[in-house]
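Record format v2
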Amino acid sequence: MASAPMSEANPVPATAAADGDDVLLRVENVVKYFPVKGTGPFREKEYVHAVDGVSLTVPRGQTFGVVGETGCGKSTLARCIARLHDVTSGRIVFDGQDITKLSQRRMRPLRQEIQMIFQDPIGSLNPRRRVGSIIGDPFAIHNLASGAERKRRVQELMERVGLNPEHYNRFPAEFSGGQRQRIGVARALAFRPKLIICDEPVSALDVSIQAQVINLLADLQADLGLTYVFIAHDLSVVRHVSNSIAVMYLGKVTEIAPAEQLFTAPRHPYTGALLSAVPVPDPDLSDQRQQIILAGDVPSPIAPPSGCRFHPRCPKAAPVCVAEDPPLEPRLGDGPEHPAACHLPMAEGEKLSDFRPSISAEERVLAVEGSLLPDDAGTGVTDSAGALPARREGGQP
Amino acid sequence: MSLPEFTGAVAAEAIDETGEAPASKKIEGRSPWRLAYERLRKDRAAKIALGTILVIVLLAIFAPVFAALVGHGPNQQFINIGENANGGPVPPSGTFLLGTDNNGRDLLIRILYGARISLVVGVLATGISVVLGVVFGLTAGFIGGFVDTVIARLIDVMLSIPFLIIAVSIAYIAGPSVWLVIALVGVLSFTYLARIVRGQVISIKGREFIEAARALGASPWRIMFIDLLPNVMAQVIVYASLLIPLAIVLEASLSFLGVGVPPPTADWGQMISDASGYYQYGYWWFLFFPSIALLITTLSFNIFGDSVRDALDPRGAGIYV
């Protein structure tokens, strides 16, 4: 998939959420903790703070992107919305109905309106069952169609997603990765759902196949008026498909913005760092650009940092960031569609590399050995030619 | 609002990817079972073992026909021609092809009738094992938590009791019968199978296709039997095919110890037990033929079971993804 013409290819102004648009999904303060098994009976119970107070509003008919590093809670959030996990606290309101506490039995009719597309095109299809019966599952489970009628509708779906209906009797192993993801799409589409949660639907695919699947999803949205929650860690993919984007870090939303605004005027330093990692196809441009490499790994979600969770790795970190958790609200005169959770948001044209954290070294994450200069524990900055860690030593402080 | 169309030539390839077969051609998927069957068909050892098993089954089924042909019933004693001057067994001859036993009965006919007991016990006990093993393993693995703990500990307790000691005790108290033997062997050997199924279910239930089924609104029953069970069947079949010879040997062991199939019913274990007092005096056929029958039967099942395992091996080409 070409990432170069992306901004040209995305002329829709994407003026964010709401604006009187009908809201399909509202996520309010959703928290999901997973207990970590203690090794002894007297051990204090610990929890993984997978999702820690996330609020989102997804307008009908739009694509809402969610990005973040591996382990930031994107997939857990997706499973909470689809009610595959019960939330620890918070509310999920779908189409005006609070579905947070619905029993699995009462949830069943709603399953037809909320569907999911999974990341792993191999793992999400039962290897022992024929494709026709996998795609026919929705009809079988909800007694919507049987026999010849079911077969006809399954083959219609296969045709709709660009599969050969003659392959009805094949097994998942006999398809390519892209085709398997189409099978997953067909299955999710069987109910004509209102909302499809796409959990990294293209992350496991080749770049050329990614474009096919993304185009398929776009066509389906245009034809059927679907709403997507689109989760990915590939920023260029999310930018292309989304109307608005939420950035997650360690279980919290750090910034929400209309797609283009997020890329042109990121407020949160974390967003800034993420954007600097998006590959630029023009080598000259790429050479001029400064790339920000965050120090260390994402801190443990079992004991997340105090205050702003990004402070140990943030180049702009100040004492207030350690002390206070910044609320998610519009910063620097942004509209309500662009809130950011940052005490010291980035202004336009500001370079992260010009900043040094003003907090004590203990508050910062330990520098990865050899990758950073002694007094530069917050960030490592390279002149970006090589994003690879192996070339970091050539970077300038 | 809809998504902007993706620019670039890749969009056109979407159709090409799926269009490799002419629409008119009927395509039949090759199921994992079919692939396994085809591998099995190429396995010479499997074919020989299966052929032997079929012969044994036919011999067992038509035992009465053979009895009628030679005119010797399975429990019929031939005091005059079937015993020597000391009342011992007579060696193989034209009248008694495999000789007689210590009661002057035709050894060949008794071995044929004994095959019936062995096969019936082997198959039925294995059936009980499979049903119990799948039910307990699936329940423990799928539900997890407290139920899993209780079942897993129960299995541990059962595994810690030596089979023969508990079986002999129960059979001694209850009095020997074929049905008791079947029940004992079946109930006491389901534990291994339950463990295998439980482990498989736990590893499979975390896969995304189970989540997909839940997202579609599938009931727990449907997930257990439509999504999980077919994925553990390969292991169940492999284990069951190896359980049959084990059950046959266990039955023979119980009969050998005198708490299995009650006399005068012809039974291999019983015959070997009877012969153990005679073979050192030169009556070798009395011990040899029942032992060989038991050996060939269990060996055939074992070899066939091994071949089934190889054919269903996930590492074999083309079975799994």
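The radius of gyration of chain B is 27 Å.
Residues 1-27, 316-321 of chain B have pLDDT under 50 and may be disordered.
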